[in-house]
């Protein structure tokens, strides 16, 4: 008798830099992992972009690799990737253009023309819950294709967001999902809960695949295969799923990295112009309910300023890694200057000679960061009673940051949350019932409580 094969789910987690494949067993432990980085290519304007062909081949190569591993029984496959990127397919399912980069400059007059035709920039941005971000609003990428390359636009049978394109490679089915439609694409009208009028007027809705629920699964196109294929998810929305599954009392998740995104799935109060101006928007969950989110470029700023402190005091940034909070330094900073008013931008302009040592300077930096974080998170708190804030990612391991945050939100329980690969686990959890015979796990998130 052969050994019993381990039932697993395969998850492709496609980031801008790293492309990963994970196999999770029924306890959500990673039993296999593969990581790849591809060289970027360029589009017809010479702007760097993702190499679609490398990505496609890599999906098939890594699938073949795991199918050859006889110890695993692959029950399902799902995908998660960055949003704001479209793949345009012809009637044979082949890409017609490069995968344009969402950082590519967007013609200002083209964006203005679209806004003006539908009530002006503010109204357009409020209805679509999308600050005017040019190429980062993926709907405007299609609009641009229609305007600049009408002959290619005519050939487009389907425009798929990247997660759904990856899913299409394996299932052969085309569909749209709410998490991709809802990530600042300028496609969705949050008032009518349907595509915005401009999408219909331009016949772009004809090129968008039918919308399905993120919990749906499809059969694979490969003959004889029995595994199920998920629809794919936008990565930020996927990372929220483990928390939604485990916690039912209202909470906010601050997902920290280069961007620190505060997400509140319990706040559907309409966006205000003031919120939009401060980089606040709506995402959508897999079933189409709004998640109010605000973004802060804090991880990037932390890296920049940590290096400035390290250079000034002639130490390495490694010194800052495991600092415990020194409350007397915080008190002294408060007495010497009114640091409650300091923001992220303030610190960049501070003369570092005013600090006696790098420990003081670093504490001041984190005070500035937390001030900015509190303002950003307050934008999504709303009137309802949030009981808990979970912090995951890099800053959840920073004791100074976590202690200061707890002190600033004295009536809310603050937790550092750690979970290996939250984004990938979210994509696996969402289709749990289609591949996993065990009950939902309740121990995949480790929490550490910080007292105010």
UniProtKB/TrEMBL annotation:
Q: Which InterPro entries match?
A: ATPase_NBD, FGGY_C_2, FGGY_N
MF (Gene Ontology): kinase activity
Q: Which Gene3D superfamilies match?
A: 3.30.420.40
- Give the originating organism: Sphingobacterium litopenaei
| Record-annotated Carbohydrate kinase FGGY C-terminal domain positions | 249-433
Q: Residues in domain Carbohydrate kinase FGGY N-terminal?
A: 9-230
The protein here is known as Carbohydrate kinase
Q: Which family does it belong to?
A: Belongs to the FGGY kinase family.
Alphabetical list of SUPFAM superfamilies matching this protein: Actin-like ATPase domain
Keyword list (alphabetical) reads: Kinase, Transferase
